[in-house]
Amino acid sequence: MRCLKCKENAVIELRQHNASYCRTHFLSYFTNRVRQNIEHRRMFAPDDRILVAVSGGKDSLALWDVLLGLGFNASGLHLHLGIGEYSNLSLEKTRHFASSRGAELIEVNLAKEYGMGVTELSSKTGRVPCSACGQSKRYLFNKVALDRGFSVLATGHNLDDEAATLLGNVLSWQTQALARQSPVLPRTRPTLVKKVKPLYTLTERETALYCLLKRIDYVEDECPNALGAKSLLFKEVLNRLEENMPGVKQSFVKLFLKRIQPLLKSEQDVDVRDCAVCGQPTTREICAFCSLWQKALSGGVAYNASSGAQIEDRRID
Ligand code: Q46
Ligand code: ZN
Ligand code: ZN
Predict the structure, then answer these.
(1) What confidence score (pLDDT) does residue 271 get?
(2) Do 158 and 91 share a structural domain?
(3) How much is the pLDDT for 314?
(4) How far apart are CA 202 and CA 52, in angstroms?
(5) pLDDT < 50 positions in the chain
(6) Does residue 222 lie within any of the structural domains?
(7) Second label for 95, Cα 20 to 30 Å away, from 135, 178, 243, 264?
(8) What is the pLDDT of residue 308?
(9) Ligand 1 pocket check: which of 225, 232, 233, 292 to mutate, most ligand atoms within 8 Å of Cβ?
């Protein structure tokens, strides 16, 4: 197997692109794809302040590394979620990376700042851990970016994540979720920061190899709460399809974004207002984060202050 560019020994074969690359040319291919995604989708410009959500896993660390390498002003945000040893190890790897690059790292510890981590939050509210966790993460990403004056929040979602989410949304025809599934969510109101996914065309296998070649030490274990998650099953199924149909994951996501998503514009029309408690955007009087944490801290159920109805919120980012 020879490198497409220089004919040296290749370190990876990318059947979806009909290409193989040596170390040097794989790293430049990877970096160039990220740069093209940023430019093509107008994710951000050189003068933007970017906040990268960093879990300590391969995708977010690879993303942060590429952005720093391209000269962007990129700080990291790590949430210590309070999920046992997994969270401690994730923080350790993130700190190690940040100090090795001399990059700014902002840390938020859920237990210290809000009174409990995801495990306790889940048991106190009766919500499955990933639901309570996902809601808290989305809220805090937006809040920290806003409070600290960042113009954009970047996450490490890769092609496998996007294809698995798309498959899940299609299987149950979640039209509102499909309308929101995009590599760029613009700032539609002052309290909602722009969100971008610069790795959305790169696979997990590629981000893992990038980290290996750049000697980036990342958390290899999955979060214990991910065990049995539907997203892992969807990824497995898509990988089986990919073996027989190289490029299918890429075309699934690419063609969805090109042909289907523009048709779903009306699904994005939701009535958004500021949360009566915290001021962050919500479709209800009190946002999902505030009602979740109210419930956890009081041990009871959160109610809408004016109507007395149990609070629900629609996801808007
Ligand atoms: S960290 Fe949180 Fe994930 Fe763990 S509890 Fe679920 S959502 S699986 S990306
Ligand atoms: Zn080469
Ligand atoms: Zn709120």
Answers:
(1) 86
(2) yes
(3) 61
(4) 17
(5) 302-311
(6) yes
(7) 135
(8) 39
(9) 225
CATH no. for residue 200? 3.40.50.620
Residues 266 and 276 in one domain: no
Q: 265 and 295 in one domain?
A: no
* pTM over 0.85, yes/no: yes
Atom number, ligand 1, closest to the C-alpha of residue 133: 2
Considering the domain architecture, whether residues 204 and 305 belong to the same structural domain is answered as no
In whole angstroms, how far apart are CA 9 and each of 13, 86, 141, 162? 11, 37, 42, 31
Residues 221 and 281 occupy one common structural domain: no
> Ligand 1, atom 1: nearest CA belongs to which residue?
223
Question: What integer pLDDT is reported at residue 312 of this predicted model?
Answer: 53
Q: What is the pLDDT of residue 18?
A: 95
Are 285 and 227 found together in one domain?
A: no
**Residue 165, helix vs strand vs coil:** helix
Question: How many domains is the chain built from?
Answer: 2
Nearest CA to ligand 1 atom 3: 130
